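Write out the 3D structure for:
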Amino acid sequence: MTDLAPLRMRLQTEGKLTLQIRVIPKSAKTEWAGLMEGGVFKVRIAAAPDKGKANDELIRFLASELGVRRPQVEIVAGATSQNKLVRITG
């Protein structure tokens, strides 16, 4: 489990967050998998990378974890890659 308090605080203070995320699709469940070097968050996704299903699940997961609505979470780079850049607005 990742401590999200600093991220939530930054989102509340600055009004936005940009996160680098490495996804692991087709996992048993969607969950945080740790923090890699360089501040990249690792997230296991319980969806296949098929027709955007993994991206949709990532957006749903991040919105739920950070307490925002889904439209406030946007994949700005890496939509077809395991390495993604995600912007969250508060």
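The chain has two helices and five strands.
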